[in-house]
Amino acid sequence: MRLFAAPRVNVQEDYEQIRRLQRQLAAIPTSRYQISDLALDAADGTHQIPVRVFQPQEKRRDDLLLFFHGGGWVTGDIDSYTPACDTLADLTGCVVASVDYRLAPEHPFPAGLEDCYRVARLALEDPARAGVDDASRIVLVGDSAGGNLAAVVSLLLRERGHRVPSRQILLYPVTNWDHHPETSPFDSVRDHGSDYRLTDAEVRDYLELYVPDPALRSDPHVAPLMADDLTRQPKTLLITAELDLLCDEGEAYGLALREAGNTVEMYRIDGALHGFITLPRFARPLREAYQQINAFLDGDPT
Q1: Strands 48-54 and 95-99
Q2: How high is the mean pLDDT of the chain?
Q3: Mean pLDDT value across residues 187-195
Q4: Fold of the 2-298 domain
Q5: 144 included as an active-site residue
Q6: Which residues form the Alpha/beta hydrolase fold-3 domain (predicted)?
Q7: Among the listed residues 193, 171, 173, the one whose alpha carbon sits nearest the alpha carbon of residue 183
Q8: What does the pLDDT average to over 276-286?
Q9: Is there a contact between 75 and 44 (Cβ–Cβ < 8 Å)?
C-alpha cells in the first residue's frame, strides 16, 4: 500500500505544482470523451462558473450526477477530474456535470462553496435546463473536499429555504475541522494520518489555505459534522475507505444524519486508500464502490 502513497509535499508551498502535475496526469486526448463545456453566471455577476458535461457511452438512467471534485479545496479541476468523471458517466449510465468551482488560496472560503451552491440551486430550480424532467433526478456527488461541498450545499439549500436534492453520494468526505493526531476525536486520524495516501499534515495545510481564519474552521459550513440541525437532508450514500484518515469522521457524519431522521446507507471499502474514485477502472476499490453507487441509484429517488 505504501508504494501507492503520495510523495510528501508541503501543500502550502507546492499547491501550484500539484495542480500542474494533476493536469499532466489527466492529459488524455479529449476525443476519447463525449463532453461539452458550458458556463453559468455567478449570483453576483462577477464571474462565470465552468461546468463540463459528460455523456455516457450508453445512457441507462435518467439521473443527472452533479459532481464536485476533491483536492482539498485547493487543487483539482474539471481537467484533472475528466478521466474520473468519464468513468462515473460510463459506469453509472448517467449524465455527469462537473463543476469547476473557484479554488483557495486565491479564492478562500466561502468562494468555492458559493459556486457549488449556485450551480446546484439553478439545476434544482430549473431541472429542464439541466436536462432532466424532474428535480428528484438530480444527485449531488463529491469526493473528499468535494464530498464536503456536496454535504454543505445540501445544508445551505435547506437553511436558505430552497429545494434540497433528493439524494447525495458522499465519497470519503471531509466533515470535521480538527485533524491533529493529538486532539482529533477520531482514531483513523492517528492510525492512518502519517503513512498512506493522505496525511493529517496535508489536510491541515489544505484547511488553512481554504479557511485562513482559524475561528471559522469549526463553522458547520466548513465542518458539517458541527451542524446543530441535520434534519431534512437528502437520502445519502456515504462510502469510506478503510485506510483513510477521514474514514471515522465520514462515518460519524453518516450516523449523525441518520440520527437526525434521514435515510443513510454507509459502506466502508476494506483495504482502500483515500482517493480511490480516481483509480483505473480495473481497480477493486473502484469496482466495489460502483456496485454500491449503482445499487443506490436504482433505489427510490424520493
Answers
A1: antiparallel
A2: 92
A3: 93
A4: Rossmann fold (3.40.50)
A5: yes
A6: 65-277
A7: 193
A8: 94
A9: no
Query: For residue 5, is pLDDT > 50?
Result: no
Candidate list 80, 144, 154, 188, residue with the active-site label: 144
Q: What is the pLDDT of residue 279?
A: 92
Per annotation, catalytic residue among 69, 179, 221, 274: 274
Return contacts of 27-34, CB within 8 angstroms, 24+ apart: 27/79, 28/82, 28/83, 30/82, 32/86, 33/82, 33/86, 34/89
Structural domain boundaries in the chain: 2-298
Annotated catalytic residue within 115, 143, 178, 244:
244
Q: Let me know if 126 is a catalytic residue.
A: no
b/e code 24-42 from CB counts within 10 Å (16+ = b): eebeeeeeebebeeeebeb
Residue 118: pLDDT over 80 = yes
Residue 247: DSSP 8-state: H
Residue 244 catalytic? yes
Judged against a pLDDT cut of 50, whether residue 137 lies above it is answered with: yes
